[in-house]
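Reply to dn_fold:

You asked what the input looked like. This is it:
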Amino acid sequence: MKKPVSLARKILRAILYIILFIVFCLIAVSLIYYASGYRLDVKTRTLKKTGLLVINNYTTDAQVLIDGKVADVKTSNLPNFIPSSASLVLIPGQYHLTIVKNGFLPYSEEVTIQPELITKVEPIVFISQKLEPERILEDSIINYAVSPSKRKMAYVRSQTELVVFDFNSKGQQVITLPIKPGVIIHELTWNEDDRTLALVVDATPSRDVLVISTDNTPTVRSIKNDFSFFPTIEKVFFTHSNNNMIYAISHTGTSDTLFKLDTANRTTTPVDQNITWYSQDDSGISYFVENTKTYKKLSFDSDNTQVVTDASIYPPTNLSLQYFDKNNSAYIAAGNLVTDLNPTRAYSVDTDVTTVTYSAKYNALYYFKEASGELWQYSFDKKEKKLLTHFNQAIQNPEMYDGTPYIVYRNRNNQLKMIKNNGTNDTVIANFDDLSGFFIADDNTVVTISNTKGKTVVERFTLLP
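and this is what came back:
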């Protein structure tokens, strides 16, 4: 016969059932909230909807720190040949992200996490802690020009020799120039074929143009004596469609004249006069005609000249123009950065602008205002500008590091630097005595040209191992 359960035990058992039920409910609710992306904010002691931080191009040998503390990130298990990513769930707010990797400089930036949204950190470029440049050339260089493919560099040595240097093979081709010592060399220009050059030199009583072929059997041809009339040339341009056609700028008085030189038929034809400004890009020559107040464009592909627009609304004082693609263009007129050459659509982005570069990846302009030391971004897609960062000194020759969100530039202290396009990770690549130029040769190489002890030194920096 069972003993009767006391009232006290019945009450205790009921209380235990109630407690277990409450615990179960709390755990179930917590799991539901957790699965829905809620986390406890220890600062405010409240549940908050989380956001997700995603780091692209992440490698497992890197370590992620959030506000100085190591974070446990989840990585995507992808094959080695596919760029991986890492993710981290965070309470909404501002965080200082640092990514460290052995042998490389730390990467850091401020990230803002918003509830129920993904915050992406764009592909990261890690810079080696020890960047040892490869010295690939040292010579007495007077004038130089890098080929369109950036695989070759041509330069004049001792005024009587042209040297063509191949960056890949490090081989040299030496071509003797038919000019006398002491003759002034004005301009060295490559054709897009990477094989032909034009050299503008002084030749009494006017100037001459030497057309140089760098094939296995190099040739040097003076074209001045082929013409009955030959203007005093400042600069020459090759066309894409016809190697026998050369365009040239001749300076007279306060303006320039654009000529067409047909080397096959030995004729000289003036294309336009009263030119007060011109600029060249890969597609052709852009120039401004003062008396008609019009911009014109000479296409290297079609060999045709067309009026681009009326320029009366933004007169080209101290003008600098770049054509970026068929849809977007911009120019600087007296410090005024203007997009679109068509006056009905032209938009003044900003004033006091001194230099600008374009990123096709982000379809955006990055421009510098020297007076205020500010680096700005203007998005063509959003039609808006954004202040990125301040510099203590002027930046020069900014160039986009293709395929990445980074800008390579030099400053007045002869430093070569790289900065992310959001204004973070301003990093010194190298210091120089006299840095005269640089260019990005491929996905991970920057080539510098500097002067030291009376010699010109060409070095190659491999940013990515």
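The domain at 134-462 is CATH 2.130.10.10 (Methylamine Dehydrogenase; Chain H).
Hope that clears it up.
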